[in-house]
Amino acid sequence: MHGHRPRTPETERSRRWFMNKALLAGGVAAMATMTGCSSSSSDTASSGSSAAPSGMPSGGPGGGGGGMGPGVSQTKYADVVGVTTDGKVVEDLYAIHSTDVSTDALVKAAQAFLDGLSTKERTSCTFDIDADEWTAWSNVDGYDRKGVRMGDLTEKQRDLGYALLGRALSADGLARTRGIMKLNAFLGDSNGGNQKTLTEGHYFFTFMGTPSTTKPWGFQYEGHHVAINYFVLGDQVVMTPTFMGSEPTTATYKGEKITLFRPETKAGLAMVRSLTSAQRAKAVSSQSNGNEDMKAGAGQDNLTLAYEGVPGSGLGSAQRKKLLDLVRVYVGYLDEGHAEVKMSEVEEHLDDTYFFWMGETEDDSAFYYRVHSPVVLIEYDAQAPLFYKGDTASASPSASASSDGGGPGGGMGMGGGTPSQEHIHTVVRTPNGGDYGVDLLKLHLANDH
Fold first, then answer.
1. DSSP sequence for 278-338
2. Is residue 33 a contact partner of residue 142, using CB atoms and an 8 Å limit?
3. Residue 61 DSSP class
4. Cα 36 to Cα 20: distance, rounded to the nearest angstrom
5. Cα–Cα distance measured from residue 204 to residue 412, given in angstroms and rounded to the nearest whole number
6. H-type helices in 332-409, by residue range?
7. Average pLDDT of 187-206?
8. Residue 138, by phi and psi: left (phi above 0), alpha (psi -120 to 50) or beta?
9. Total Cβ atoms within 10 A of residue 118
10. Interatomic CA distance for residues 150 and 162, integer angstroms
């Protein structure tokens, strides 16, 4: 791709999920086998990858719903084109320039984390800047991951990892990430415990390149319902693809009440409710939202997705502000300075920013929406429960898990069951070659390397 050195492809990751409906019909025991519930390994057991014998994809059996399930394969980094509307990249959207937002503290935090690792740990989590490790992420809890696992590190090492995330993300972004991790552990505890993949510790750091204030580098933080890809070049930052989700979205964990995705839900509803009848005719699909509508999840790095809905050019000034407010909720999980840089970029293309909706519009409705422009793609998708049932402070295997509904898996949020706001997936991408900083890296290698 770049011609500056021979490339060594990374080993393809294994895909380990069981989709046998007979097992699903077996109910809780089958689920325990399929998600590693029967594993006796603890959260702090040493491992560089998932210990679960298989991973039930929370995002569905395939498609773009978040998990890289059967029928979806990893795109090699050298082959990444990016999300486009018609297979053709819109040129000249991105450029190497100064943002005047320092990354010095971020670089120091990344280096401090790496310096705190043992030689073996550091070797296990560092890759070339153009490694296939960038695209090898998944929402699935039992996905076979590389890198250093937070649950295997010392408390001091973990604190350095959180300090890095604190520099890369806003306060809200860090709180959101930690909340997802805690609710992942809540879900595991509520289903019997002893599930290594459903803990606070089953999240992994990998690094591409070496932290630098001048040369390109980045990191990936990934686990169940979290995948943050963070590329840095000088004082420019790209934090996409970023996947965030949770099941449940509200619970009390170790005395802490955690509620996730309310800003995304409320901002989406505010936007759709602001539309006139004529605008709704363009923006709101006649199709009801299904169990899994996300298009741009893991394995969809070269997705072709046409614009749908109402464009920003067809909105009034108050509506355009609501659209920007919606985008800001997601962009706002990036550190404040770089979030403002990104919002300026989004605003430049506001006329060509489309808003699309599927589903009802009540406060508690389960719905899907999408914001799509040349420089940003956001999806919100309320899905059917996989393990969680009810609105109490405890979780249990969903009744749909033992049903024999249609579609792959027959239930468990995989073609059956009823979507709700207790299982939400979101993803943010930078279309036209922006993801993983691909376009910026190309420009850097062509002009500065």
1. HHHHHHB-SSPP-S----SSTT-TT-B----SEEGGGS-HHHHHHHHHHHHHHHTTB-HHH
2. no
3. S
4. 16
5. 26
6. 336-348
7. 92
8. beta
9. 11
10. 10
More confident residue, 52 or 23: 52
**Distances in whole angstroms, Cα of residue 424 to Cα of each of 64, 101, 233, 246:** 14, 32, 32, 6
Q: Per the structure block, which two tokens stand in for 21?
A: 């409906």
Residue pair 370/386 in contact (Cβ under 8 Å)? The answer is: no
What pLDDT is recorded for position 291? 79
CA dist 334 and 172 (Å) reads 9
Q: Which helix (H) or strand (E) holds 433?
A: none
Contacts of 330 (CB under 8 A, 6+ apart): 242, 264, 378, 426, 428
DSSP letters, 233-265, are ETTEEE--SEEEEESSSEEEETTEEEE-SHHHH
CA separation for the pair 200, 198 (Å, rounded): 7
Find tokens 């998708």 and name the residue: 381
- Preceding amide of 241 cis, omega within 30: yes
Q: Are 375 and 346 in contact (CB under 8 A)?
A: yes
Residue 416 pLDDT: 53
The conformational region for residue 88 under phi > 0 = left, psi -120 to 50 = alpha, else beta, is beta
Q: Which helix (H) or strand (E) holds 205?
A: strand 203-208
Show Cβ contacts of residue 33 under 8 Å, excluding neighbours closer than 6 positions.
Answer: 18, 23, 53, 54
Tokens representing 337 are: 């300075």
- Which tokens hold the place of 220? 């990936």
Residue 101 has pLDDT above 60, yes or no: yes
Q: pLDDT tens, 202-219? A: 999 999 999 999 999 999
Tokens of 87: 């297979």
- At 199, which helix (H) or strand (E)? none
**Rounded to an integer, what distance in angstroms lies between the CA atom of residue 276 and that of residue 1?**
47
Q: What is the pLDDT of residues 162-180, one digit of tens each?
A: 999 999 999 999 999 999 9
Residue entry with tokens 């999920």: 17
Per-chain mean pLDDT for the chain: 83
Are the CB atoms for 109 and 157 separated by under 8 Å? no
Both tokens of residue 226? Answer: 């979290």
Query: Which pair of tokens denotes residue 320?
Result: 């355009």
Which residues fall within 8 angstroms of residue 392, CB to CB, at 6 or more apart?
none
